[in-house]
Each structure stands twice: as structure tokens, then as C-alpha cells.
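Q: For a teaching session next week I want to show students how multiple molecules come together into a single three-dimensional assembly. I've collected the sequence lines for a complex. Could you give me the predicted C-alpha cells for the whole thing so I can convert them for display?
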Amino acid sequence: MPDAVLLLLAVAANLAGLGWLALAMDVHWEQVFGPRPASPGAVKRLRVLGVAGLAVSLALCLHVDHASMAFLVWFMTLAGSALAIAFTLSWRARWLGLLAGRLTP
Amino acid sequence: MFQNFRLTMAWLHTWFGLVLGFVLMVVFFFGSLSVFDREIDRWAIPESRFAPQPMPSFDKVLLPVFQDMKANPESIAQARSRVNGPMAESFPVVKSWSAYTTHRDPVLGLFSSYELPNAKDPEDGVFGTRTIDPRSGKSLPDDHLKIGSQFFYPLHYSLHLEWKNLGYWIVGFAALIMLVALVSGVVMHRKIFRELFTFRPKKHTQRSALDLHNLTGVVALPFHFIFAFSGLVIFGGIYFPVTHTQLEPLHEMHEKHEALETGLPHDRVGVAGPLASVDAMVAEAQRRWAAKDMAGEVGFLSVQHVGDANSYVSVYRAGTDRIALTGEGMHFKAATGELLREDPPLTPVASINTFLTGLHLQHFRHWLLRWLYVLGGLAGCACIATGFIFFVEKRKRQHARQGKGGARWVDGFAVTTVTGMLVAALAMLIGNRLLPDVMPAGWPGKGDAEKYIFWGAWVLAALHGLWRTAPVAEARMAPAWAEQCWAIAALAVTAVLLNWITTGDHLLRTLGERYWPVAGVDLFMLASAAIAIGVARKLGRRAGAPVAASTALAGERARA
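A: Of course. Below is the structure for the complete assembly, covering every listed component.
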């Protein structure tokens, strides 16, 4: 696959990863789904998914560039994704519900 | 002095952040633009709108141009105080020639230096510069300012305050305070992880501005920290000039010693010597890079002690494929083309240094990372701007009751540095499109006129900002913000239209030809215009509302 596509996927995985980690936090879960707390099991799964998303993103970055460049790209993508997730939560919180899939209450 | 550590940190963060924040705003914004400095150059100099070129043939293209180059009159004028007795009429002894390009440069910058007869410092010299089209060797007019790489970029690190390098010192101090502000900010902020994704635009202005301040500060914290730090490392030689003050004799001795060790002559021998084919030396350097599994293009080429028997040629690799800024230099004897030296592998300290330098100066080819740098820089701008807004919102009612003007003045300077800076930059680009290529006799050159427009527009924006923030003194909203947002929108659209009218390069054409440097600058300005209009309308609606309820716009203001 061309590098541009792989990097796009890396950004997507990064966004999803941070989205899952945000959903694992009570405040943000309630922003998305209203005052129905997530089950402890769901929180656990969201955390695992989140970490996995970030790991996949890093792996894709490492596949495209050599290590020092890849870490830098990953780290900066993390900053961009965090901003994107925060703004989504502020203005279009429901959209993050898509990430929850079958974990939806 | 304070009850506890956290309050001490809060005091430090507030006051140092406020004062140096105005400087940091300039540094962050023009740093962000500098990521695409070469692309802004393309926009500003339409003759240079073609694809990036590799280093051309030295023997065929560069040599005749170098031989034709002379010391710049400004360089000679500046050297007048550095000579004993009268200034020489000509500068026949060429110290060095050099050429520098990157993977984003269609045109090539050339540099020459000449011995300065009767100089107080025997190593002193005068300089010549030229920009050529590497495809033909044709020179571009000298007074065409490369607005991106010769104005916005130096503004980022020197503020264009050249007197006694004052700008470097101010920027360096601001970078140091940036590090302090980051650490003290982390200490003050109790819920870094719990509130990582928190931004509540519907709360009152003070709260939402603080949310955005924390958000942009925390998510880009490593970026801000590393950039402030690596910036200090890059200019370490200026901040600790030991090699040219206390340790000058040692430095000189070290240079001579190094010359012995490397076999690269430190001085001319005084006997004329020939120059063999430099193209052959370049080919040999490229063969040796390829053998090290580092095949690459030439980034920097120089000839030292031109015309002397001791002359040598250095060939450095362009660092497009790595972060560390290393040249893998190959040095050849000019007369014979024999290899004198190949730069050895770096020591660990030098590796860290080149990594930090390269990380900051970004010679690499990676468009995603470039855009992420811009995002990081603009996040920094948003962080500083929301810091100002928080400062004003927190104090303006109290100041209004007490009849103090503090909040109002801070708001005025915030308008000047946030929106005023954009007004100035856009006015400069408009001036660039409207001024004739050759200015009438008696007028400053085009490049100088563009600089005057920049500073003039900024002064006007500052006066407007200080005047139209008066209502803050009565705890009301300043109309200056919305008004300057409208100005930004109008100027940005005008600049894009003028680019079309004066060069014929409208967006449909540049996008169709995928000429991203110019299309990108146009699109960036249009996006700024769109954001500025959105912000101005929201601010207008809020000004109409009875009480200033909240603002979600602080960050957008910064980004507009």
C-alpha cells in the first residue's frame, strides 16, 4: 500500500484509540450516552481497545518511516487526535457513540 | 512570600507568561509559517513557481555565476567600521563560495565571501549573495525578498531586532520562560489526565478560555517543550559565546589543531592553484554515500580558499530522509579532486545535538509531519491567546470597579499580537502583489517596501487595537477583536484574488496542476478568512446579547 494510505490509517487508528480511551472516562461516556454509566466490563474493554488503537497506529508509523521519524509522527498525531476528540466531545459528542459499537448501553 | 508552592507557581506562570507571552505569540505564529517558508517564497516570487530542482552542475552552471559574483554594497557599507584606514575599492581574494538547496527549493541560493583588506580582525570578510534559476543559471533580481525564508523565518527567531543581536536574546529568554511556564502550568493544573479532553464552550468565557488554554497546552506539551528546548540548543553558541569571548585564543588554537587533524587547510598558502572538476567530486561523494547505504542528493556545496593551492571542496548530503541534521560531508582537494577527508561517525553528544537541531529545523521530506508541526505551533498560539483572554476575563470586572486600566491594556496588546499580526502578514503579501517589480528611482527596493508595509500595518493594527479595547475598562467586550477579524477576512480574500489577477494562477489552475506551494498558500488564506468570518459573526452576536455569556471562540481567534 502507498505510504500516504498507511499514514492515513495510522491517523485513523490514533483517533479511534484516543476516542475509546475518552469513552472509558465516566464524564465523557455520559456526554455521549447520557446519565447511564458504562458497566465496569465495558470500561475495561474500552481501555484495552484504546491502547490497542494507539499501538496499531504506532506500528503503522514504524512501517512507513524509520524509528525516530515514526515516533515523532506518532507523537504529533497523538496531539492532533486529542484536539479532534476534545472538539468532537464539545460540539458533536454523539458521533463518538459510533466507536462504542455493541458496548452501547 | 506565598502560602504554598502552587500559588508561587501560579504567580510565576501568570506574570512571566503574560509579559513574555506577547513575544512567544510572535515566535509561535511565525515559526508555524516558517514550516512552509519555501512555499510562501513561491507565492511571493512568481518567477520561481516551478518544481524543486536538484543541485545543478557546478562546472557548467555554478562556476560562471560564482566568478561573476561581487560583494554586496550593504555588506561593504557594514564593514566600514571594521577596517583600519580607508575601505578597499575591490575585494579580489575570494575566501569561499557556497550553494545551498533543499528538496523544496526550485531556485538556488548562492553565497560568496571575500577577504577584507586592512580588517581589524584578520578573519573578517565581506559577502555576496545571489539567487539563480538552476535550470539556466539566470539570476533573479536582487531586491526580490523571499518573504517566507528571509522575512517570516528570521522574525521567528530574531524578531528582526538586529542591534547587538537583541532579538536573539529576547527570543531565547522567552523560550526559557516558555519552559518555566510549561512546568509551572503542569504544577497548577491539578487534573491533567482527568480533564485531558475537556473543553466546555457553553460555559462562561473565563471557564471556556481556561479549558482551551489547558487543552492546547497539555496535548501539545511535549511538542512545546522540545521546541523551546531545541531552539535554545540551536542558538547555544549565541547565548554562551565563550568561543569568541573568554576562550577566543583557545578556539583559534582548536581550529588550527582541527585543521591539522582533518587535513583540511585552515589558511591560504598564498600560491595560486587550479580547480579540478567539481562535478567529478560530487559524483564521487554520491558514490561513497551510496556505498554507506545513504544514497542522496547534494544539499550544500562549498569551495574554501578559492583559487589558492590550499583550496578544498566540501560536499554535504541533503538530509531529506532523516530527522538528524547531518551532512555526511566529503572533502576534496580542489586542485586534484583527491579525497582529503570523509566526516567520521558522530559522537553520542553530537548525535543528540544534530537530532535536536534537525527536529527543529526540519530538513526532512515528510508532509504529514510538517502539517503536524503547523498544528502544534498553532496550538501554541491558541494556548497563549487563551491565556491572555483568561487574564482579561478574570480581572476586567474588578479593574472596572477599581477604575484600573490593566485589563484593558492587556486586551489591547493581545489584539495587537493575535489578530494584528495576521493583519500585518496579509498586508505584506498584498503589498507584494501590488508593488511593481522595479520600484521608481528614489524609492526603497521592493523587498524593503514590503517590510515597511508589514511594520506599518502592524502599527496601525496596534493603534486600532488599543483604541477599540476601551470598553474593557468598563468590563464590556472589546469590539477590536471582531473588527480585526473582518479585516483579516477581507485582506486574505484580497490577497488570493490579487494572486490570480497579477499572475493568472487561480486555485483551479494551481490545484489542477497540483502546484501545492501556491495552491496551499491560497487555500490556507481562504481557510483563515472563513474562520475569521465565523469568529467575527459569533462575536457580533455575543456583543448584541445583554451580558457577555461565554465564548467558545478564543482558540479560533488565535487560529483565524
